[in-house]
Structure formats: C-alpha cells, structure tokens
C-alpha cells in the first residue's frame, strides 16, 4: 500500500475544506450540498480506515509546521488519536445523513452544514493534535464552530443557551491558554509524549506541577461537563437534535474528556500524576459528577434534558477511568469514549425522531410510542439498556473494565459508585422504556398520530448506531473492536 | 461443532423472538414455540459429558459447557418451557398482545437456557439479565392494576438483584484474576463477594426477605408465564449459587448460618402469608417461596460444612427438578381448570390437580417424600448443632406445603382464575397432564436420568405420611370452620344436623309405615286368634299352660338355687294392641 505521510492532513481537510464550500453554496442547492456532505464524510471514513490500518502496523504519523520559533503546529496520528478520529468519522457520516433528513425543509441550511463541517474538523484536529498548543487552537475553533449550531433555532431560549455556552467554554478556553503557557514555561515543550514531560518538574517543584494539573484539568473539565462546570450542557440541549447528538457523543464533551486523557497520560504521565496525589481527588470528583448527573436526570421530564444530565454522568466515567490510574480502568475509560458516543448519539437521534414524528418532547408523552415507531424505540431501548450496563451491550463492557480497574487500583468504592450509577440509570431510563412499550396511549391524545412521517434518513441512523452498540459490546473481543483498540493504546500509555 | 450446538440451544428461541416481529410469520412461530427448547434438550440428553466450547470473539470471550448438574437442570427446564410453550400457544390465541408476549417469552427462554450453559461470569450474567428483564413484560402482560404493581415490584427487585450480582461477580472475578466460573469457585471469593452473590441469586430464588416480588408476579402473569417463572426461572437462582459459589471447597460459616436461618423463616412465614391470600396463583407463589426455603437450608448447610456438599448437591438438584415439574403442573393445571366450564370436568381437573399438589406436599413414595428424606440424610452430614432443628423443620414443611395446597384447592373452587374467553376447554390439558405425570413418575425416571447423581434419592426412605395426613386433617378442619364462619354458625349447625334430621325423618317415616302395617296386622291377628282360640279353647289351654310354665320355672329355680338364675325373666314386650277377647 502506498505510504502517504500527509494522510492525517487529508483527513483533517475533508471536513475543513468542505466547510467553506458549504457556506458558499446557495440555500436552494440542497442536492449538491447533500452530495458534498456525504461524499466528504464517506471519504473521511475510508481515509480513517486506511490510517488506522497503518497505525495498527506500527506507523506513527507526525507532521510539524513551525509557526513561531519553538512553537510548532503538530499533527500526529497515534493509536489514541485514531480512537477519537474513528469515532468522529463514523458518527459524522451517520449524523450527516440524519441532519439532512432532520433539516430537510428548515432555514439556514448552508450556515448549518458549514459550521457542522467546521465542528467536525475541529474535533479531528483535537484528536490529532501533537502538542497542547495545537490542541488549544482546535479547542477554541470547536467552541466557535459549535456556538452557531447551538443557537441555530435563533429563538430567545437558543440565544440564552448560546450565551451561557460561550461564557463557560470561552472561560475554559482562557484558562487552558494559561495552562498551556504554564506548561511551556515549566517544561519548555507542550508536546504530548507517552509517559509525560513533567516528571522532572514534579520532582523539583511539585506545587507548580500540582497547580498546573488543576488549571489544565479545570479548563478541560468545562467541556467534559465535570461537576461543578457542567451547567452549560443541559441548557445547550435546545439545539436541534443532530447538534445535540454530535455535541454529546462526539464533539464537545468528548473533546474535554479526550483532553483530560492527553493531559494525564501524555503531559504529566500517569505515574507523575499519581505521585502528585491528584488522581485520587480527580476520581472522587468524577464520582460526584456521575452520581450528581444521574440524580438530576431523574427529575427531568424533558427527554433531551434527561439525556443531557445522563451525559454529564456518563462522560465522567471516562475521567474516572483515567483518574483511577490502573491500566484495566484505562481500558474501560477509553472504550467508554467510543461506547458512550454510540449510546448517546442513538438516544439523541431517537429523541429527535420522537419530536419530529410525534411531537413528543417530554417523557410523559412517551406512552406507547414503541408501537408507533418500533425501529426508533428499539434503538433507544438498546442504548438505554446499554447505559444501565446490561451485557452484551457496549455499556456493560466499559462498566466491567472500570469495576475491575477500580478493584485493581485498590479503590473498592468504585464498585459502589458504579452500582449507584447503574441503579440511577435504571431509575431514569426504565420508566421511559416502560412507557414506550408497555403503556397504552391515552385515548384523548391530541391529533392521535397514525404512521409518523419520518423518512429513512431519520429512521436509519439511530438503528445503525444501535446496531453498533450491540456489536461493540457483543464482539468486544474481536479484532478492531473499540475494546481491542483501547487495549492496544493502554499497552502504549502504560509502557513507560 | 460443539460451539454450534451450544449456540443453537439458546439462539433458537431468540430467532423465534425475532421472527415474531414479522406479522406474517406469527402463526407459524406460535406453532413452533413449544419446540424451541428442543435443541437444548437434545444437547443435554445426547452430549458426552463434559462438553465445552468457546467463542473468544463474543463479548469478552464466551465459554460454554455442560456437566452433570447443568445437564439435569436443562432437562427439566426445557421440559417446562415446552409445556409452557404449548400452553401459551392456546392461551394467547386471541390475545391482542400475543406478539409482544411471544417475543418476551422466547427471550426469557433464551436467557434461561443460555445461563445453564454459560461457563464464564459475563455470559452467565448476560443470560441472567436477559431472562430477568424480558420477564418484566410477562408479569405486566395483563396490564391491570395488579399486574402494574406486581411488575413494578418485580423490576425493582430485578434491578437490585442484577446490581448485587454485578458487584459480586466483579469482585470475585477481580480476586480470581479470571472470569471463568470454575476459576471463580476455585479462587474462594471474599466474604463480601459471596454475600453479594447470595443476595443476587437469593432475589431470584425468593428467599425471605428478598421474596416480596415473587408471589404477586406469579399471580399476575398469565398462566403459561407463571408456570415458567415459578418452575424454571427461580431455579436459575439456585443454579447460579451452585455454579458460582465455592460450595464444597471453602467454608463460609456466617453466610451459611444466615442462609439457613433465612430458609427456616422462609418455609413457615411463607405458609402464614400464603394461607391468607385470595388468588390461587399467589398461593402457589408463596408455596414456591416456602419450597425455596427448603433449598436454602441445603445451600446454607453446604456453605457451613463443605464436606457435606457432595451429598447435599444431588439432593438439591433433585428437589429443583421435583419442584419445577410439580409447580409447573400446578400452574398449568390452574389454567386447565379455568378453561373448564362444566362442573364435572372441573371436578376431574381438581382431582388431577391433587396429584402434583400431593407430590409437592411430600406424599410418601412421591418425589416430594423421597426428596425430603434424602435431604434429611444429607443434612446429617452437615452441622450437628443445626441438625435437630433442620429435621423438625423439614418434617413440618410438609405440613406447611399441604396446608398451602389445601388453601389453593379451596381457592380455585371459590375464586376460579379466568381463562381466555375463546380458548378450547381441552387446550391446556395436555401440557398440564404431561407435567403432572412427569412429577408423579419422577422417582422412577430419576435414577435413569441422573445416573450417578441419583444415588441419594434411590436409597432414600419413601417418607412419612403423618405430615401430609395431619395437615389434610387440619385443612379439613380449617375448611369446615371457615365454612361455618362463612355461612354463620347457626346456619352451619343446621346444615351439619340436616343429614341427621333427614335420617331421623326417614326413620320416623319408616317406623310410621311399619306401624300402619303392624296395626293392620294387629287388627287381623286377634280376629284370627279369637276364632282359632274359640275352636281350641285356647284361652283355658293358655292359662293352664301358663300355670304349668310357672310351676316348672319355680321348680327349676328351686332346683338351681345355688347358681344364679341363668336367664332372668325378660320383661314382656310392650303390648301394642289390645286383644279383644
């Protein structure tokens, strides 16, 4: 196979170049826009497939451009990056199909898809950033690209949500800038290096290193919706369903969680971070977020809001797994990056279908929707059961590894935490399933819907991702499953 | 090849569940439903033990296997699902939600059969969860208020059990460094892990205080579902304990004590709660709880004294099969009873129901009788401190079960359960009769089926009659009393005396008739006598004869003065007529 050193750049460009074209296209050119969107997304999936094959063979891609003396723009494709790129590439394709169906007759489609592409480009950039500086650039780009998507509807609620979103993320970005500078000053480099670059600093001036850890994790914790920086996420769910799906599954929260991984594994190094005594508090904070998010989710009647709080809870599994400083827990954390994405995108797209097809936006409107939209609700059901952690679904695999990792790290409380989380998950998901499948619809339902009018572009994506949820869990041990890939990564991160 | 056999065993019902979504296939699927467990049954009957297979690429690597114990579990489980599938086919014929029932029924079946084949913690947990969660829809099927509350309770306990199981398995797997069940057993999990596992499986088994879900769920579910819930699925809890806990190798004295105490309480508290119920199927549910208390005694003894486990295990497996068949027959029989319209056929079904009821109660020489005696013998190998209590408890449990069965029989007469309106009267009879026959024949079948594991049963005493007998008397007394209370004591007394009064009246009338006849004779005789007497001068002759007789008697009395009179003169019979000389 031909060797292409610029492959990572091409992957970045598929969505980055698509963006201005999409902006330029007139509103009416729906067919052309759709074909550009889909072909780019499909091309990207293919390229990512190629890239991951290469990386699996041991090739490490490393592209540098010196921007200022000593300040490099650096793209690299290591296994950890592949994990995130693969997630974003596959889900971008699926979400694009869904968005086309969802916004079929909506206004401002050119703007929407332009920013949508930009947002995905930023995500890919974050994944492939080879140093914290590059990471910061794409991190800020992501903030700016998602803002127009959040306020897409343009009404008062959307604008308010957008404002709150901006305040949180820009503040987080500012702190990240500070942290990047701090790292530059302390270590003289911002490169992501397996094993970390701060071992010496931590030995000499542990206080500075501790402070830097807090600053960086705090900054990234905003996007990762770590308690107490989570408030923007449930508010931002006013965005259209595909945006919420992407935000919750791939783009924003995952960028934060992914950043935490990079910082803990490749800036500090897991051993250094542990010696600084900061992983345990981070694990506790993640634990608090997990329980807090679930508790809040129980009382939400708005479906998307309930899902949003569930995201707050579920994304912290990743942080928890990283902070437990056990390779087994790390496998769980990394696998959950993918698994949570698959599960949550399924649920958000299903929720979007309920809103589109039946006008059902609240849990209390979900009576007997399973009989009206069986495919969508089957997908939702699989994802919900996976969230609760039932085998053989994806969520179980990550939960099992987190539990084993917690025990491996001697943190037995993790079991109790996971049990509590599963219980709360059951408490807020099972009633939805009960309503959908086992309740008869109220007879006086306004304008009793017959067959809902949703096209295949809305119906197919959640079913597809639900199948992926099943496959990711059911074939977790097969080669190229998310779990296998994370084992590959963890072997690298824990080598040093 | 082996893997394919294992996969077919649990994939067949899953495949049927998937087919049911397609409306055109439904009629066919229902026709095939009774045969869905056949691949598992065939595998269990024909395979050379021990059989193993692996699918490394599934979940985190699945391991399947078959040994002596799981083989026996599969045989009775598959049998039960066959019978219930047959019943469900008729029961659901005109049900609006038949398809949804069928999907969940088949999924629960796949889980139940799969968990018996699983040899690693993850696939076991997966199948266990599939079975438990799918059954939610079976409990809820009727959708009425009772089903709603039963299903809520059920799902709450399922989640509790699953969480405990997850934690227990995760702890045990972490301690063992492997998730193969054999390694888990060998590694002797910590007390915490064992406690969590006991809770997780105890929920399914219905051991008090984890039993709350069981009777309402078994009462609320449609008959075919209750049969498998009570017959097959709660045995999954027992099977889980047998396969995951390190029974027979490590002693967990505290856990054993708690389990035994819980078992003791369960046996009798279930009786007290059960006899107060008004729904016959709920009573059967409480009977299941009570029976699982007996199982808990065995499990507790095994945890306490590992050396005794070798003799306890075969008995527990036998008791599981015994309870599965008898209880399955009782539930299906309830359905068969409900489907009958004529009172004659109802009486016939009731008489047939007495078979599994008495078998369950432990009638001597039935599987219940043998099982209980075998368990007594096996427990003798356990803790000597507990032994007297256990023996007494086991004997008294026969009373408890008999009373519950009596209550059940009384209730199906008083509150007969409802069957689907259009169902044919003979629809559920076949599976019911087959299970009842199997339950009756179990002591004969078992030695053939279980081979080496049947030894404790073959050598057991047939059991004592007195617990069943005394309980039947007690129940009869209680029924009488209840009847008296029901209709009012005075009415009851009147009813009670009615036969005697009737008899008296009859006697009176007979006597009156005789009197009339006698009077007629009486009128005729003197006339005749008078004429004859006149002819023979009978009057004088009679008086002379009388004097002669007295003289003779006087003479004789004087002659025999030393000895007491041989025959004192009898008082003359009452004159019922006046001679008219």
**Structure classification of chain A:** mainly alpha
> Which stretches of chain A of 5+ consecutive residues score pLDDT under 50?
444-448
Cα-atom radius of gyration of chain B:
34 Å
Range of helix content of chain B:
over 70%
Report the span from N to C terminus of chain B.
Answer: 114 Å
Order of strands in the sheet with most strands of chain B: 1-2
The string of secondary-structure elements of chain B, in order, is: HHHEEHHHHHHHHHHHHHHHHHHH
Question: How would you describe the shape of chain A?
Answer: globular
Residues in helix, % of chain A? over 70%
Terminal residue distance of chain A: 31 Å
Q: What can be said about the biggest beta sheet of chain B?
A: 2 strands, antiparallel
Tally of separate helices of chain B: 22
User: Ranges of chain B with pLDDT <50 over ≥5 residues?
Assistant: none
Q: Work out the oligomeric state of the chains in this entry.
A: heterodimer
Number of strands of chain B: 2
Overall spatial form of chain B: elongated
- Can you tell me the number of structural domains of chain B? 3
Radius of gyration of chain A: 21 Å
Fold topology:
The complex is a heterodimer of chains A (496) and B (581).
Chain A: H1 7-24, H2 30-56, E1 61-68, E2 71-77, H3 79-102, H4 109-128, H5 132-150, H6 156-187, H7 199-204, H8 206-223, H9 232-235, H10 241-249, H11 252-268, H12 270-275, H13 279-298, H14 303-323, H15 327-358, H16 369-372, H17 374-388, H18 394-408, H19 413-438, H20 456-474, H21 482-493
Antiparallel strand pairs in A: 1-2
Chain B: H1 2-20, H2 26-32, H3 38-46, E1 51-55, E2 62-66, H4 68-91, H5 98-117, H6 121-140, H7 145-176, H8 181-186, H9 191-205, H10 214-220, H11 223-244, H12 253-274, H13 280-304, H14 309-339, H15 343-361, H16 367-379, H17 387-414, H18 429-450, H19 455-458, H20 466-487, H21 489-536, H22 538-559
Antiparallel strand pairs in B: 1-2
């Amino acid at each position: 196979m031909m060797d292409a050193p610029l492959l990572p750049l091409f992957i970045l460009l598929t969505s980055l170049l698509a963006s201005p074209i999409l902006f330029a296209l007139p509103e009416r050119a729906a067919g052309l826009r759709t074909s550009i969107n889909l072909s780019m997304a499909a091309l990207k999936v293919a390229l990512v497939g190629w890239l991951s094959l290469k990386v699996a063979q041991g090739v490490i891609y490393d592209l540098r451009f010196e921007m200022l003396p000593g300040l490099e723009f650096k793209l690299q494709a290591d296994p950890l990056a592949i994990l995130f790129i693969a997630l974003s590439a596959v889900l971008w394709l699926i979400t694009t199909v869904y968005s086309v169906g969802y916004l079929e007759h909506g206004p401002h489609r050119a703007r929407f898809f332009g920013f949508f592409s930009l947002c995905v480009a930023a995500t890919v950039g974050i994944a492939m950033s080879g140093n914290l500086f590059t990471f910061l650039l794409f991190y800020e780009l992501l903030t700016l690209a998602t803002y127009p998507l959040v306020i897409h509807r343009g009404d008062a609620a959307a604008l308010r949500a957008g404002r709150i979103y901006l305040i949180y993320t820009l503040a987080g970005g500012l702190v990240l800038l500070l942290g990047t500078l701090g790292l530059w000053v302390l270590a003289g480099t911002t490169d992501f290096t397996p094993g970390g670059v701060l071992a010496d600093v931590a030995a000499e001036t542990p206080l500075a290193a501790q402070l830097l850890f807090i600053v960086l994790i705090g900054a990234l914790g905003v996007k990762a919706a770590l308690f107490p920086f989570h408030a923007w996420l449930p508010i931002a769910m006013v965005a259209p369903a595909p945006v919420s799906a992407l935000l919750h599954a791939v783009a924003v929260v995952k960028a934060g969680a992914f950043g935490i991984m990079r910082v803990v594994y490749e800036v500090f190094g897991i051993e250094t971070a542990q010696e600084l005594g900061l992983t345990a508090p981070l694990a506790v904070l993640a634990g608090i977020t997990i329980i807090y998010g679930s508790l809040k989710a129980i009382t939400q009647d708005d479906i998307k809001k309930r899902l949003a709080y569930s995201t707050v809870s579920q994304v912290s599994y990743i942080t928890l797994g990283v902070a437990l400083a056990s390779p087994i827990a790390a496998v769980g954390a990394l696998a959950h990056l993918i698994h949570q994405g698959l599960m949550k995108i399924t649920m958000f797209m299903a929720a979007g279908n309920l809103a589109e097809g039946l006008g059902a936006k609240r849990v209390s409107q979900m009576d007997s929707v399973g009989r009206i939209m069986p495919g969508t609700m089957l997908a939702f059901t699989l994802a919900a059961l996976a969230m609760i952690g039932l085998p053989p679904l994806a969520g179980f695999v990550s939960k099992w590894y987190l539990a084993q990792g917690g025990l491996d790290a001697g943190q037995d409380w993790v079991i109790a935490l996971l049990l509590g989380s599963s219980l709360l998950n059951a408490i807020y998901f099972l009633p939805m399933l009960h309503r959908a499948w086992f309740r008869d619809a109220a007879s006086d339902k306004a304008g009793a819907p017959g067959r809902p009018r949703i096209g295949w572009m809305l119906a197919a994506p959640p079913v597809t991702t639900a199948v992926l949820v099943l496959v990711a869990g059911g074939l977790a041990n097969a080669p190229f499953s998310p779990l296998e890939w994370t084992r590959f990564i963890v072997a690298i991160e824990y080598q040093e | 090849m082996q893997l394919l056999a294992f996969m077919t065993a649990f994939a067949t019902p899953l495949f049927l569940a998937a087919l049911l979504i397609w409306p055109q296939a439904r009629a066919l699927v229902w026709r095939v439903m009774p045969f869905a467990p056949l691949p598992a049954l065939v595998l269990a009957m024909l395979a050379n033990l021990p059989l193993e297979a692996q699918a490394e690429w599934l979940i985190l690597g699945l391991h399947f296997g078959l040994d002596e114990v799981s083989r026996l579990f599969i045989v009775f489980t598959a049998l039960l699902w066959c019978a219930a599938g047959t019943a469900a086919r008729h029961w659901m014929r005109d049900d609006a939600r038949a398809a949804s029932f069928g999907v969940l029924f088949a999924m629960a079946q796949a889980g139940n059969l799969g968990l018996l084949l699983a040899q690693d913690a993850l696939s076991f947990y997966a199948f266990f969860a599939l079975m438990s969660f799918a059954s939610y829809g079976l409990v809820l099927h009727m959708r009425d208020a009772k089903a709603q509350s039963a299903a809520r309770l059920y799902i709450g306990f399922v989640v509790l059990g699953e969480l405990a199981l997850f934690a227990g398995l995760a702890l045990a797997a972490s301690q063992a460094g492997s998730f193969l069940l054999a390694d888990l057993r060998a590694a002797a999990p910590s007390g915490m892990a064992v406690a969590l596992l006991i809770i997780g499986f105890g929920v399914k088994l219905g051991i008090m205080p984890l039993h709350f879900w069981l009777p309402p769920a078994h009462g609320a579910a449609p008959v075919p579902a209750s049969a498998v819930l009570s017959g097959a699925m709660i045995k999954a809890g027992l099977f889980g304990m047998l396969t995951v806990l390190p029974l027979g190798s490590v002693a967990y004295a505290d856990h054993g004590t708690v389990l035994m105490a819980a078992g003791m309480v369960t046996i009798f508290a279930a009786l007290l709660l059960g006899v107060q119920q008004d729904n016959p199927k709920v009573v059967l549910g409480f009977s299941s709880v009570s029976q699982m208390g007996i199982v808990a005694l065995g499990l507790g003894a095994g945890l306490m004294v590992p050396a005794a486990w070798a003799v306890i295990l075969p008995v527990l497996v036998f008791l599981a099969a015994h309870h599965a068949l008898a209880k399955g027959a009782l539930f299906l029989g309830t359905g068969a009873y409900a489907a009958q319209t004529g009172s004659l056929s109802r009486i016939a079904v009731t008489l047939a129901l007495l078979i599994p009821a008495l078998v369950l109660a432990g009638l001597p020489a039935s599987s219940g009788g043998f099982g209980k005696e075998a368990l007594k013998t096996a427990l003798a190998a356990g803790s000597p401190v507990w032994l007297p209590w256990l023996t007494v408890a086991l004997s008294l449990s026969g009373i408890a079960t008999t009373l519950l069965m009596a209550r059940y029989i009384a209730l199906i007469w008083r509150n007969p359960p409802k069957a689907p309106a259009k169902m044919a009267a003979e629809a559920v009879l076949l599976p019911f009769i087959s299970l009842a026959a199997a339950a009756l024949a179990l002591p004969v079948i078992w030695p053939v089926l279980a081979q080496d594991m049947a030894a404790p049963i073959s050598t057991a005493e047939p059991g004592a009659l007195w617990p069943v007998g005394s309980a039947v008397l007690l129940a009869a007394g209680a029924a009488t009393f209840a009847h008296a209370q029901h209709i009012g004591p005075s009415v009851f007394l009147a009813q009670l005396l009615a036969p005697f009064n009737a008899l008296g009246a009859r006697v009176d009338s007979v006597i009156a008739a005789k009197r009339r006849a006698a009077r007629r004779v009486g009128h005729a005789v003197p006339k005749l006598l008078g004429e004859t007497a006149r002819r023979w001068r009978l009057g004088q002759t009679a008086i002379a004869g009388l004097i002669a007789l007295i003289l003779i008697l006087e003479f004789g009395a004087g002659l025999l003065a030393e000895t007491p009179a041989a025959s004192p003169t009898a008082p003359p019979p009452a004159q019922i007529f006046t001679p008219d000389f």
